[in-house]
């Protein structure tokens, strides 16, 4: 195994000491390993915030693209994985909280839908650091996405943090309640929360996860 692959392995394993030794030996911090990944991408993906800080301190590029098709920013990747500490490290290093990936993903929406129920800590962190709570991604706000996925607590959190309740969010929740009768109760709780927030009325708003897998051709077409 050459030293670039050793650095990538150390980053993936969260071994900051080994990564530091390899950097001191002169390994280029953003060199691609045999899988065409940088050490920083692997550290972000695995949630190793100490290694992320080490690599950034050694000059790793915050603007590099990540993911199988280079479709995500590092901040989007961290938000999608629910790695709050890594999100904080990237923001501290200068990553913009609203920077879009090349196919339009934004960190707040990915955090709000991470893991099926959303990641409340990462959502709060992004909002505290200046992310727009009503940012639009693929024609929907974070509240719209959370309503569509039946994320009751995330809907309440976003409303508490000042998200604008809209007829669109209500319509999405109503449509999903009809489409998914087994989950009707949680959609009804979302509808109640939106009514309580002042939405009084409520088209097909089919929901597909905002980071659903795209093949290489789709990703290239949206570049």
Automatic annotation (TrEMBL):
Which GO BP terms, alphabetically?
protein K6-linked ubiquitination; proteolysis
Region entry Disordered, spans: 201-223
The name on file for this protein is Ankyrin repeat domain-containing protein
**Gene3D superfamilies reported in the protein's UniProt record:** Ankyrin repeat-containing domain
Give the matching SMART domains: ANK (SM00248)
ANK repeat ranges are 35-67, 70-102, 103-138, 138-170
Report the PANTHER family cross-referenced here.
Answer: ANKYRIN REPEAT DOMAIN-CONTAINING PROTEIN 39-RELATED, BRCA1-ASSOCIATED RING DOMAIN PROTEIN 1
Keywords, A to Z?
A: ANK repeat, Repeat
Domain named Peptidase A2: which ranges? 123-145
Starting at the broadest rank, the lineage of the source organism is: Bacteria, Bacillati, Actinomycetota, Actinomycetes, Kitasatosporales
- Fetch the SUPFAM superfamilies from UniProt: Ankyrin repeat
State one molecular function term (GO).
ubiquitin-protein transferase activity
What's one Pfam family here?
Ank_2
């Amino acid at each position: 195994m050459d030293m670039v692959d050793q650095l990538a392995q150390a980053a993936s394993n969260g071994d900051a000491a080994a990564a530091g030794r390899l950097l001191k030996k002169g390994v280029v911090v953003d060199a691609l390993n045999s899988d065409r990944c940088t050490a920083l991408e692997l550290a972000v993906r695995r949630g190793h915030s100490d290694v992320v800080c080490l690599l950034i301190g050694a000059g790793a590029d915050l603007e590099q693209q990540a993911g199988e098709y280079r479709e995500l920013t590092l901040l989007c990747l961290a938000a999608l994985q629910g790695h709050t500490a890594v999100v904080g490290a990237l923001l501290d290093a200068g990553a913009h909280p609203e920077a879009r990936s090349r196919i339009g993903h934004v960190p707040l929406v990915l955090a709000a839908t991470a893991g099926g129920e959303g990641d409340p800590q990462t959502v709060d962190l992004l909002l505290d650091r200046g992310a727009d709570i009503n940012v639009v991604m693929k024609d929907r706000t974070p509240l719209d996405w959370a309503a569509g996925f039946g994320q009751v607590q995330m809907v309440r959190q976003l409303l508490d943090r000042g998200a604008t309740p809209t007829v669109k969010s209500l319509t999405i929740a109503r449509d999903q309640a009809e489409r998914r009768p087994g989950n009707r109760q949680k959609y009804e709780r979302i509808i109640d929360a939106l009514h309580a927030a002042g939405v009084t009325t409520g088209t097909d708003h089919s929901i597909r996860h905002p980071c659903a897998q795209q093949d290489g051709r789709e990703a290239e077409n949206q570049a």
